[in-house]
Amino acid sequence: xxxxxxxxxxxxxAERHQYAAQLLPKILKDLIATSLPExxxxxxxLDLLVLDFETTGLDPKKDSVLSIGWVExxxxxxxxxxxxxxxxxxxxSITSESVKIHHIRPEDLRSEGISKEVAFKLLLHAMVGKxxxxxxxxxxxxxxxEYIQHQFNVSIPPLLWFDTLKIEKYRLQMARHQTxxxxxxxxxxxxLPCYTTHHALNDAISTAELYLAQIHHLFGKDKAPLCIxxxxxx
Length: 234
Fold this sequence. Notes:
alpha/beta
């Protein structure tokens, strides 16, 4: 079982070699230039970027990112001085139903919003050399991929991702009694306090705290091998 898991890093490295054969802008080259960690290394020693998007919907072909929040976790310490929250200028009107969910008002985007290009440039630079963490990575991956395809005409580069939603399912071994996989519910179950949800930076910090709690519950004081977290997050 361990040997099967250990091939994940080798597979990503092979994907990176193929990806690098394309004509790439510097930022994408930088994202795949950092050496990958050993599959048996302790994840507590790694640098992470915990990320959250607030969007108008779930389809990147027709929906938009309204705000991005991220925070860095270095050697299992959340660094709030390295946290960022960005509003993205949105040309189209926001529906009332969308506002009810994320509480982002059109005037927020007009007064504080920056261009999508600037926001994603800052994000991509922050991602260099880090494992990316999100709660349910499918949304962040889809919107990142859509932006990179549109901006650079290539797909999202092969990166290392941790998914706290999938890690919790792994931790509970798909316990039948657990049916609510929302970030707030999993935080409550693991003993973390409630935060305001659907705010990109709040959710990024909430996810970072959940991740660290999951590592503690899964491994205690023992080594937390990277390959196990990658397997749980796939």
